[in-house]
Amino acid sequence: MTEKPVAIIRFNKSKDSIHLKVLASRPAVKLIKSIAGAEYQSKAKEYSLPVEQISLLIKKFQEKNQVVLVEQETKDYLLETQELRSKIINREHQPTATDLKNCLLFPLVQKNTDQTYGLKSASTKKLKTLLPEIAHFNDRKQFSSKLKLQNLSEIIWKARLASVRIWLSKEARSDLLALRNKYLESCTDGFSEWLLGVVTPENCFTLDLNRRPVLILKGQFSFKDLARIFPDYLEDPFWETVEEREGVTLVTLYDSKLLEIFETVEIAQIPKSQVFIDYLNKIRFRSQILSERDRFNQLKDFDLKIQNQSLASKLYPHQRVAIAWILKQQNCFIADDMGLGKTLSVLTAYQEVKRNKGCELLLVICPNSLVLNWTEEIKRWLPELTFATTPDTKVTRIKFLKKIKEGIIKPDVLVINYEEARLGYVALELAELTSSKKTFLCLDESQRVKNPLSITFKAIVKLAKYCPRRVLLSGTPSPRDFSDLWSQQFLLDQGERFGANYYEWLEKVAELGSKWSRFSIKSFKPQAVQEYLYRFQELLLRRKKSEVINLPPKIFIRRDLKLTGDQLVRYDQIREELLVQLTTLAGEAYQRSIDNILEQFLRAVQIASNPRIVDSTWKGEPIKFQELDQIVEEVIAQDQKLVIWTNFTENVRELVIRYQAYHTRPYYGEVKTIDRQKYVNEFQSSEAGSTKILIAIPAAGGVGINLTAASCAVYLDKTWNAEHWLQSIDRIYRIGQTQSVNIISLNACSIDYIISKNLKKKQELLNQVMDAKEIDFRQIYPTQEELINVLKN
């Protein structure tokens, strides 16, 4: 046994509870966290300990050959009260409230002089657990000090569910026993939940602390016992977890199976609490919503009864279905494939809502590259709608928004970009505007607000709550993983389906925690994700191009190239540096720095694409440029047009000059918005001398633009960003395309291959999420071993 102590057990400052001061955190903290009821007190920077658990904790330290000290004053007091405390714990003595206080047994319940009951010395965490419906600590504390007997019974039940031990004075225990005798036969269908604090039926259905449906079974049951009780569900169980709680078994149920199991007569006869019955009715209502959603997803067309019949007749059938869905739902998500005309669907639906006086303003928030697209769609299809975009300077923006708010300017549609919306003064004006005008809010490319910690999300969430109608548009709502959906769902329903707290929700759907962050995602819980996907599906309309429009084939082609000469030498140098770095990293260090590592891999991608990106003095000919020359010659010879995608501005500049004979145009961040639209128009033009080649960066040109004049797109290089890739890939494959489409990827090194493989994996995950199918929860990041193998080849 080592001589150096790892912790000290002592009184807190007020000497009314026992604390543990950690001296050597690593060996001690893990043991402390294994003790039921131990809580970290941030103010004191110590752990509070249930006195009845101290002996167990000391024993655990001893088993690990670690020394824990007990201060003499604390030790003397614990020895002095040991006999009485032991009798109380072993139920050999009915304690008064004073006995419990003297023995430091907390939290305790004492009877007040006004015949109410007080829950004393419950920590902030315990009060939040036992009274989750009360928002503020002071309100919880006040409520818990004046409990009626039924309130006390409910708290005892919740404490049982949460494995929180509450010590009852003999007066409180006696009154609860009388309450039990009075209601012993009352646990029949529709019973009040508080009864479970004093009466435990043989079995019953109710809700747990997280308001999830549970089956309560009296006695100690194993999983095999449960399977024997419900043999029909052995292959496809309706339970998520089975846990023991002080003499009862708590079986957490899947929402998606509730209606099915209640078709079984034997199960339906088990008593249900009133809150469970209410919950079951909500499930039935949600089932009806999903059935309606499924019907809309399968509709081929819809007979729209709107005033603008002239426009309705010109729309594609799937657009008429989308409009009907938007009009039917107060809030909804349109996740149709890119290129299916979501913009026009929203505008048409809004016009009808406005004519029926449902809203007076459509506020569109979109990427900057789409602002012109929205205004062009209005001018082309709905010229009777007036629209506005915001001025460029702060002073003029504020004045402009105030004029709209005051009714001096009355646009039907206001289009702003996400960068503007996140500005503090703009967000404030928009919140005031939406609170004073009935606003229809549309977020285009809503994955831009996927991060609930971002300034953009925080700005938009303040105005969204005022908007009576909200619609989100995105073909790629979860480009990273399932967690991308929380913030978007919250903007739609203000937490009704996923909850109002992101971190609490995240704990339900994922295994969390690492040395660096307790909220880092280690893995997702498949069934929990599946349950929330069903909720997400309730407002979701999702159609694929192949299902609703007839498009020519889309063919993916990979051209494999080999680096040579100095380009290969430079690539190998970076590859070897990365290999040394990766092989020296421990597993945890790899996980901590994965984003930085993947970013460094892009140095090799740059060299494989064009060494001049990192060294402007390099004089060679990139192998990919040479291959691109052949593709350009082939495409132009067939009198077709071509889009070249690259992630690096140096490539854009070089290639525009390289192919200037074909009136080549650039499309990237340094090009003014008005010029971007001009270049797209030139590219889409069929006139002689029009632009034949467009060189674009996916981050700038991946959304909104229509490039159907091209029949071929070449990816000179790719990054790990699935959102940009998925958005860009269908710029030429959308409504209006009449030619077969070739998507060509140029791969010149093993890193090009693994990036393409990873993007494909993310695309598959997105499809699984959107289709609510069983999700493959393979790690979306490459493993350390995979990257090392790539660098060795």
Question: What does this molecule look like?
Answer:
The chain has 793 residues and is of the alpha/beta class. Helix content is 46%, strand content 16%. The chain has 35 helices and 27 strands. Strands 15-16-14-17-18-13-21 form a seven-stranded parallel beta sheet, with helices on both faces. It has a six-stranded parallel beta sheet with strand order 22-27-26-23-25-24, with helices on both faces. It has a five-stranded mixed beta sheet with strand order 3-4-2-1-5. Helix 20 (424-436) runs parallel beside helix 21 (455-464), helix 21 (455-464) runs parallel beside helix 22 (485-493) and helix 26 runs antiparallel to helix 28.
Rg is 32 Å
Low-confidence stretches: none
Provide the helix percentage. Answer: 40-55%
What structural category characterises the helix and strand content?
alpha/beta
Which labels suit this protein?
793 residues; alpha/beta; seven-stranded parallel sheet; 46% helix
What is the gist of this entry?
With 793 residues, the protein is an alpha/beta fold. The protein has 35 helices and 27 strands. Helix 18 (394-406) packs parallel to helix 20, helix 20 packs parallel to helix 21 and helix 21 runs parallel beside helix 22.
Set out the fold topology.
Layout: E1 5-11, E2 18-22, H1 25-33, E3 39-41, E4 46-49, H2 54-63, E5 67-70, H3 72-80, H4 82-89, H5 97-102, E6 108-111, E7 117-120, H6 124-130, H7 137-145, H8 149-161, E8 167-168, H9 170-182, E9 203-207, E10 213-218, H10 223-229, E11 239-245, E12 248-253, H11 255-261, H12 265-268, H13 274-298, H14 309-314, H15 317-328, E13 331-334, H16 342-355, E14 361-366, H17 371-381, E15 387-389, H18 394-406, E16 413-417, H19 418-421, H20 424-436, E17 439-444, H21 455-464, E18 469-473, H22 485-493, H23 502-509, E19 510-512, E20 521-524, H24 526-537, E21 540-541, H25 545-548, E22 554-560, H26 565-583, H27 587-592, H28 594-609, H29 623-637, E23 641-645, H30 649-658, E24 665-667, H31 673-684, E25 693-696, H32 698-701, E26 710-715, H33 722-729, E27 741-747, H34 750-771, H35 784-792
Parallel strand pairs: 1-5, 6-8, 13-18, 13-21, 14-16, 14-17, 15-16, 17-18, 22-27, 23-25, 23-26, 24-25, 26-27
Antiparallel strand pairs: 1-2, 2-4, 3-4, 6-7, 9-10, 10-12, 11-12, 19-20
Helix pairs in contact: 15-16, 18-20, 20-21, 21-22, 26-28, 26-35
